[in-house]
Write a structure and sequence with these properties.
Elements lengths: L1 H19 L5 H5 L10 H4 L7 E7 L17 H22 L6 E4 L12 H14 L2 H7 L3 E4 L3 H4 L2 H4 L3 H11 L4 E5 L2 E5 L13 H14 L6 E5 L24 E3 L6 E4 L4 H11 L3 E4 L6 E7 L2 E7 L13 E8 L13 E7 L3 H21 L7 H21 L10 E9 L5 E9 L11 E2 L2 E2 L2 H9 L8 E4 L3 E4 L5 H38 L3
Parallel strand pairs: 1-2, 2-3, 5-6, 6-9, 9-11, 15-18
Antiparallel strand pairs: 1-12, 4-5, 7-8, 10-11, 12-13, 14-15, 16-17, 18-19
Helix pairs in contact: 1-12, 1-15, 12-15
C-alpha cells in the first residue's frame, strides 16, 4: 500500500508542477521575438537585438467584478472565480511575458469588466487589482520598461455613456493617462485613438476631439511607418475570414443606438465611413485591435494600398476564449532603405498561453483514476507478473501436450501431492497444493509422511470435498489457479469492504498530505508580491 501511495503522490506532484508552473514556461521557451525584415538579423542569422525595439502586446483582461457572471457581490463563487482568473493572468505575465524582456508593454484596452458602472470605490479596488496582477508598481519603479494604455469600451463605455457620465472619462484619464496620443518606438510611430468616440454624435465634445487628433496626425509628415492602435476593430464585410488562429465563430457588424439621442450603446466594429477616414488620414502600415476576444487577421483596402489588421485574443481564460494569447512585436531601429515597404520595419508573432480548462479537466480525470486505483488495486500488491507467468506456463503445457500425440496424463502414479495449511488474517484456512515426483524405487509407505506435512491422497481428497467445514477454505491448484471451496460468510465480506475503505482513505490521505502543501505553495508563490 505504501509503495502505491508514494507512486500516486509522485504522479500528482508532477501533474501539479506542470499545471501550476511549468506550463507557463512553455510560451516563453517556444515563442521568440520576430525579426523585422529590415534588421541585420535576417541577413547574417545573428540576433542583433539592438536592431529592433521589443514590444509585448496584450488585451482584454477584463477583471471580473459585481457585474460579472451574474453572481452576488463578494460571494464565495465570485471570489473564487476572480482569484483563479487573476492568478492565471499574473502567471502568464510573470512567467511567459516578462522573461522575454520587452522594452515596451502595450495594453489594448478593456481592463475592467464593468468599468463604467462601478462606483469610485469599486473602480479603485479593480484598479489596485490590475496593478497587482501586472506588477505595475514594480515595472515603473525598478525597470526601464515603458507602459502604454489604450481605452476600451469596458473602461469608459460607448458614446451614449459619455454625456451622461463624464466622471467615467475623468477617472480613467487620472489612472491611465490620455486617450488619444502617439509615441515612437525605434523608427516606427504608434498612433493611439479612443475608438469608442469615433462614431459618436458630432455635438458630443469627445467625438470632435478624437477626429481633431486624427487630423493633426495626418498633417504631420513623417518618414516612419505608422501602426494604428484601436480597441474596436475596423469595419469589414460580414463573414470575412479571420485566419487559422481563430477558434470561435466570426462576429458580424452590430450597432445598438439609444432611442432618445441615437448615440451608440454598443458596436462590434467601427463604421465603414469611420474606417475609411482613418485609413486615408493615418495611412498605417499595420493596425492592432482588441475587443473581439479572439484572433482575427484581415486585409483592408485603401486608396494608398492594402493594410493588415491583427485583432488580438484576450489574455484571460474567462472571457470566452479557450486559447488566451499575447503578441510579440518587433519595431525596427534602422532607417528603411529607399524603395522599402513600410511594413518591413515591423514584425509580429502571436504566442498562445496554456489552456487552463484542459489543465483542470486533467486534474478531475486524475482524481477519478486515483480513486479507482486505490479501491480496486489488489490487496496483496501487484500480482499481475506472477499471474502472467503461471498463465504462460499453462499455455506452454497445453501446446506441448497437443504435439506429444498421447494427450495429457490425468494422473501419474509417480506424482504425489503435498498440501500446506495457510491461515490468512481473517482466520480462513487455505490448502496450497504442491506437486513433485518421487523415484519409482521408493516405497509408497515412505512417501506417506514427510517433514510433518499431510500428503495422504485419501486425506487430501477428503479435504477437497468436505463441505461441512464452516471455515472459508480456498484451494490453490498448480501455480496460481484459485478454486473456491466454500462461499465467504457475510462477516468476511464486510471485513473486506471495511479494509478496502480504510486502505483507500489511507492512500488518499498520504497523497493529500504531500500534495496539498505543494499546491498551496505553487498558488501563493505567484500571487504574493515579489
Amino acid at each position: 500500500m505504501l509503495k502505491l501511495a508514494v507512486f500516486l503522490s509522485l504522479i500528482w506532484a508532477l501533474t501539479l508542477l506542470y499545471g501550476e508552473m511549468f506550463s507557463f514556461w512553455v510560451p516563453f521557451l517556444s515563442c521568440s521575438w520576430p525579426h523585422p525584415p529590415s534588421s541585420s538579423s535576417m541577413s547574417d542569422g545573428v540576433d542583433h537585438q539592438r536592431d529592433y525595439v521589443k514590444i509585448a502586446v496584450l488585451t482584454d483582461p477584463q477583471l471580473m467584478d459585481r457585474t460579472s457572471l451574474h453572481l452576488a457581490p463578494k460571494s464565495f463563487a465570485l471570489e473564487a472565480a476572480q482569484f483563479y482568473t487573476y492568478l492565471y493572468m499574473r502567471r502568464a505575465f510573470l512567467s511567459s511575458i516578462l522573461p522575454s524582456k520587452p522594452d515596451i508593454i502595450l495594453f489594448l484596452g478593456d481592463y475592467f469588466d464593468g468599468g463604467p458602472f462601478l462606483s469610485d470605490e469599486e473602480w479603485q479596488e479593480s484598479w489596485s487589482r490590475f496593478k497587482h496582477i501586472f506588477d505595475i508598481d514594480m515595472l515603473e519603479q525598478t525597470t526601464n520598461i515603458k507602459l502604454y494604455y489604450l481605452a476600451g469600451n469596458h473602461d469608459i463605455g460607448y458614446a451614449a455613456f459619455h454625456s451622461r457620465m463624464p466622471e467615467v472619462i475623468k477617472r480613467y484619464e487620472k489612472a491611465f493617462g490620455a486617450r488619444n496620443y502617439q509615441f515612437t518606438a525605434g523608427k516606427v510611430d504608434f498612433i493611439t485613438i479612443d475608438a469608442q468616440t469615433l462614431d459618436g454624435h458630432p455635438q458630443n465634445n469627445l467625438t470632435p476631439a478624437t477626429w481633431e487628433f486624427v487630423k493633426n496626425v495626418s498633417k504631420h509628415l513623417s518618414s516612419n511607418p505608422r501602426v494604428l492602435l484601436t480597441h474596436i476593430p475596423l469595419y469589414r464585410p460580414d463573414q470575412t475570414a479571420c485566419g487559422s488562429y481563430r477558434s470561435s465563430s466570426i462576429i458580424n457588424q452590430r450597432i445598438n443606438r439609444a432611442a432618445q439621442d441615437n448615440e451608440i450603446l454598443y458596436q462590434n466594429y467601427i463604421t465603414e465611413k469611420g474606417t475609411n477616414d482613418l485609413l486615408d488620414s493615418i495611412k498605417p502600415a499595420l493596425i492592432l485591435s482588441g475587443h473581439d476576444h479572439d484572433q482575427c487577421t484581415v486585409i483592408h483596402k485603401s486608396k494608398y494600398g492594402s493594410v493588415k489588421e491583427h485583432t488580438l485574443g484576450t489574455i484571460s481564460w474567462q472571457q470566452g476564449n479557450l486559447f488566451p494569447s499575447y503578441m510579440l512585436l518587433s519595431a525596427s531601429n534602422l532607417i528603411l532603405p529607399n524603395g522599402s515597404m513600410p511594413e518591413e520595419a515591423i514584425s509580429t508573432k502571436v504566442c498562445f498561453l496554456p489552456v487552463q480548462l484542459y489543465i483542470y479537466i486533467w486534474y478531475i480525470l486524475l482524481f477519478v483514476m486515483t480513486l479507482l486505483i486505490a479501491v480496486l488495486w489488489p490487496t496483496n500488491g501487484v500480482l499481475f507478473p506472477h499471474y502472467l507467468d503461471g498463465f504462460l506456463r499453462n499455455v506452454r503445457g497445453l501446446i506441448s501436450s497437443s504435439f506429444s500425440g498421447g494427450g495429457k496424463k490425468l494422473k501419474s502414479e509417480d506424482e504425489i501431492y503435498e498440501y500446506e495449511e495457510i491461515w490468512d488474517a481473517e482466520g480462513s484456512m487455505h490448502l496450497i497444493k504442491k506437486t513433485f515426483k518421487v523415484s519409482s524405487t521408493c516405497s509408497s509407505d515412505s512417501a506417506s509422511v514427510e517433514r510433518g506435512n499431510a500428503i495422504m491422497r485419501s486425506v487430501a481428497r477428503k479435504q477437497e470435498t468436505d463441505t461441512s467445514n464452516p471455515a472459508d477454505v480456498t484451494l490453490l491448484i498448480g501455480s496460481d489457479t484459485a478454486v473456491k471451496a466454500l462461499p465467504r460468510t457475510n462477516k468476511s465480506k464486510t471485513k473486506m469492504v471495511i479494509r478496502r475503505l480504510v486502505r483507500t482513505l489511507s492512500i488518499i490521505s498520504i497523497i493529500a498530505a504531500f500534495n496539498i502543501p505543494l499546491y498551496m505553495m505553487l498558488l501563493f508563490k505567484d500571487w504574493i508580491d515579489k
